[in-house]
């Protein structure tokens, strides 16, 4: 009977290689203990059910509005990866309004930038997206992080498996 056996060196190297690949991704930036796993459109459908729930959400900044005592950042939500980076290549999870105490400089929260935040759901507000009526969940922000391009690409492994010939420039 012929059985295939990996050479000893490959058997030893395989666990190390797998560990190295998983170690590439940065850790989540916020602790998620006690947070509710729900997406913005789920809250918009039943805001009273999620009143005062703690969340970790992320997405793409649409715009910033400053008021005398607070700022509101409209965000198009996206699913988060294991490092809590918004995955803008995925289906959006609904829009929400992040309420930040004080003044939020719009240059620090530019339209199109990706952000992740922790906060507590504080209700909802009807508004419009274009000409369509929309219900925006409101989130009182505890912490917020606007991602840089370098942060978004760091920790992503550049190992790709496939058959064929290709050229990649990184």
UniProtKB/TrEMBL annotation:
InterPro entries registered for this protein in UniProt: OMP_Slp
PANTHER family: OUTER MEMBRANE PROTEIN SLP (PTHR37530)
Signal peptide coordinates: 1-25
A Pfam family this chain is assigned to: Slp
GO CC, one annotated term: outer membrane
Protein name, per record: Slp family lipoprotein
Membrane spanning stretches: none
UniProt keyword Signal, yes or no: yes
Keywords for this protein: Signal
């Amino acid at each position: 009977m012929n059985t295939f056996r990996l050479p000893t060196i490959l058997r030893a190297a395989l666990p190390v290689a797998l560990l190295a690949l998983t170690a590439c991704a940065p850790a989540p930036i916020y602790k998620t203990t006690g947070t509710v796993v729900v997406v913005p459109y789920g809250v918009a459908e039943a805001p009273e059910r999620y009143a005062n729930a703690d969340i970790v959400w992320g997405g793409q900044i649409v715009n910033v509005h400053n008021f005398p005592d607070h700022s509101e950042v409209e965000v198009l939500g996206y699913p988060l990866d294991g490092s809590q980076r918004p995955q803008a290549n995925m289906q959006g999870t609904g829009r929400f309004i992040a309420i930040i105490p004080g003044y939020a400089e719009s240059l620090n929260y530019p339209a199109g930038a990706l952000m992740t935040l922790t906060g507590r759901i504080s209700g909802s507000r009807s508004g419009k997206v274009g000409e369509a009526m929309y219900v925006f969940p409101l989130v009182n922000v505890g912490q917020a992080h606007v991602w840089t391009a370098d942060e978004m690409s760091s920790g992503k492994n550049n190992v790709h498996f496939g058959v064929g010939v290709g050229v990649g420039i990184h």
